[in-house]
Amino acid sequence: MTTTSAAEQRAPARSHWPAVITVTVATFLVVTAEQLPIGLLTSVGSALSVSEGTAGLMVTLPSLVAAVAAPVVPVLVGRMDRRLLLIGLVAVTALAGLASALAPSYPLLLAARAVVGVAIGGFWAVAGGLAVRLVPAAHVPRATAVIFGGVGAANVFGVPIGAVIGELAGWRVAFGALGGLGLVALAALLAVLPPLTAERPVALRHLAEQLRNPGVRAGVVATFLIVLGHFAAYTYVSPVLQDLSGIGAQLVGPLLFGFGLAGIAGNFAAGVAVARRPHRTVLVIVTALALTVLLFPLAGTGAAGGIVLLGVWGLAFGGVSVSLQTWMIKAAPQAVEAASALWVAVFNLAIGLGSLAGGVIVNAVALRGDLWAAGGLLALAGVAVWSARRTPGLR
Prior knowledge:
Elements: H1 6-9, H2 17-35, H3 41-48, H4 52-55, H5 57-77, H6 82-102, H7 106-127, H8 131-134, H9 140-169, H10 171-192, H11 204-211, H12 214-234, H13 237-244, H14 249-276, H15 278-299, H16 303-318, H17 320-331, H18 336-365, H19 367-386
Helix pairs in contact: 2-7, 2-9, 2-10, 5-7, 5-18, 6-7, 6-10, 7-18, 9-10, 9-14, 9-17, 12-17, 12-18, 12-19, 14-15, 14-16, 14-17, 15-16, 15-17, 15-19, 17-18, 18-19
């Protein structure tokens, strides 16, 4: 007897690809908003008289706020049409960008960044699993890959372009441009996004229920360890390339651009593979990540080895988001939004903790020790993924 999942039952009869593309633009906006300050730390610190370390809170704070907002926002909004919610969150992102551009002091700038964190968490809790509402079931993995393509595009284009704008015209103009992009994304969402009724509003008990779902639980643990390990190492990839691989500082920027391009390719390759074999796809990705990071202290001690390993690293990590989001959709087809909210919360928490842990390890043990520790976390993630090999829907 053939059964039909709740996700398949509510899937539209026809594809809304213009809406998928528009959500991708919104994804580009949200990720750029989260990471834009990375290229502006020095100029913001100089203008507002704070150290670069203190200015770094502009990146850390939104991630931590997003970790809290991801499960809280869906609970608070109840049955609110998700179309209106997404439009509202994108509007908040745009306004927070404009507020950042006009902030007269660093505390007010941080307040605007905290608001960005709320928008990030709420947006991803809904948008990550939105493909099931916009395209027929057979096209969900491809649409999910397109939506997450906005993440790679933001890393490759959004953040570097923001840094260039900041260098040429000042950091306030860069934040203002972000606000302008938000208004464009807002107009596009208003034009093409169809109504998205909340058929099953998320309640706190639904979040707790998902933690009892073996597939979701394994996915959450794997996500935490993968993202923790990745950011513990990748946060310090610039000194790794220079001090360990002997690559000149002038080449780091182009190599990271290549890392981003490899990530975009990995995103779409994983989107195809995960549609057929979700468990195997995630297992291959986490194995590649673990081996790459663990091999860096051994095979990455020269320029050629470092460049090759960096490319493999980018290709593998590019597939993480789309594969794990698809994992959540398949593990909890009747509660995609609740499972996605937990996933986004853990993902953002791990970003902040991974960067922090990497800094502690680098200061205590040096770069090689950081890579070994990060590789160990990724290996543990592989164990978590392997443990779910018999979970229905994931094989």
